[in-house]
Write a structure and sequence with these properties.
The protein is α+β, with helices and mostly antiparallel strands. The chain contains eleven helices and eleven strands. The protein has a seven-stranded antiparallel beta sheet, sandwiched between helices. It has a two-stranded antiparallel sheet with strand order 3-6. The protein has a two-stranded antiparallel sheet with strand order 4-5. Strand 1 and strand 2 form a beta hairpin. It is globular. The two termini are 18 Å apart.
């Protein structure tokens, strides 16, 4: 049920009564306030699901030109939430005996730099590998700056940092790196002989019934899509939905999906239906205080391609992401019964629009509290 409709079904308080606003109306107003904030996103959509009951809250527009509202079936870039998908592929291959969590780059990808050979799959999945981040290399930045729609050979992205040593001894500390999930996908391809895109379809999309999720190479988005914007007041929002090729992010952030599909994904992924109990125990071993990028609601702790978000109302598990025009959160309870997807059409991080991020995290926590409310 749409949050706006939910709010409309709630009867107003009678004269003289002192009554708090109903939870649905409060959540809806928070989204309106977020869109109305100077520098805020043109649109936002949040999907709460508890068992078979779904509530969709939205504010603003999916497209500033048409003015149509955001919908749960709209495509969008999911940014680093794609890392949870690469985690799902890798962990399913662990269950099948094709990979081990202690398998190393040297064993599986001997052609990668010798300095990286001792890094394990486990360390890639929890960002303790020390691999230098290819997306921060000057050569990569120069290519993107010259042509944002440049079509990369995704399987060669690590070559941008192939002459660099590890940033630290593997396993000694946490440092988020997009290179980690490129290496995960390459390892999955090496041990199966199949392309990563096919592995996503076989091991994730089909088991979870994801019908509108894909990993493209180009810059186009399938219709209809939630338009993403660069928001820098007092200038008008600039549509950057199709400004950048997905090939430069690939397994680290190139997936396109919808709020509806992401709801299915996170319920299965956080709920443990994709992997064995033994593998799940390893996945749910957390590094205290390790932030997802951007940080999610409450306290963040990093597991294997999943984060634990401990809020004032309880705990959910999931992943966040940000890219040009989009900021994402997907989260669910450990049994997968209750879930939240939260998408805004502007990019924010600890360094880009940090005040907006603080507001977004606060609203996300309120949505988690509504999700966990008995």
């Amino acid at each position: 049920m749409c949050g706006a409709v939910l709010g409309g079904l709630i009867q107003p308080a009678r004269a003289g009564e002192d009554r708090d606003p109903p939870p649905g109306a409060t959540l809806q107003q928070e989204l309106r306030d977020l869109v109305a904030t100077p520098g805020g996103p043109p649109g936002v959509i949040a999907v709460l699901q508890d068992g078979d009951r779904t509530e969709v809250y939205r504010a603003g527009v999916a497209d500033v030109e048409s003015g149509r509202p955001p919908k749960a079936g709209d495509h969008m870039r999911i940014a680093s939430v794609a890392k949870a998908f690469s985690g799902a592929v890798a962990l399913r291959l662990v269950d099948r005996g094709r990979l081990g969590l202690d398998s190393t780059i040297g064993e599986v990808l001997p052609g990668q730099p010798a300095a990286w050979h001792r890094v394990t799959l486990r360390q890639l999945l929890n960002h303790t590998s020390g691999l230098p981040d290819y997306s921060g290399s000057q050569d990569f930045i120069d290519v993107i700056s010259a042509d944002p729609r440049h079509r990369f050979d995704s399987r060669r992205l690590l070559e941008f940092v192939a002459d660099e040593d590890l940033a630290f001894r593997p396993g000694s500390r946490y440092q988020y790196s997009n290179s980690d999930n490129i290496a995960v996908a390459l390892m999955a391809e090496a041990v199966t002989g199949h392309r990563y895109e096919g592995l996503l379809r076989e091991l994730v999309y089909e088991p979870l019934g994801l019908e509108r999720t894909s990993l493209p190479q180009g810059y186009r988005l399938p219709e209809p899509f939630l338009h993403g914007y660069q928001v820098e007041p007092p200038a008008e929002p600039v549509d950057v939905s199709e400004a950048v090729s997905a090939s430069g992010a690939w397994a680290a952030g190139g997936i396109v999906s919808t709020p509806k599909d992401l709801t299915k994904f996170i319920r299965g992924y956080a709920g443990g239906t994709l992997v064995s109990n033994r593998t799940r125990e390893e996945q749910f071993t957390f590094i205290p205080g390790a932030l997802s990028q951007p940080p999610g609601p409450g306290r963040n702790d990093a597991g294997l391609a999943v984060y634990r978000y401990t809020t004032r109302c309880g705990v959910v598990y999931g992943h966040t992401g940000n890219t040009a025009g989009y900021t994402q959160l997907v989260a669910a309870t450990a049994d997968g019964r209750r879930s939240l997807t939260f998408s805004i059409t502007a990019q924010t991080s600890l360094t880009l629009a940090p005040d907006l991020l603080a507001q977004v995290r606060s609203v996300q926590e309120d949505f988690v509290c509504a999700l966990l409310r008995e």
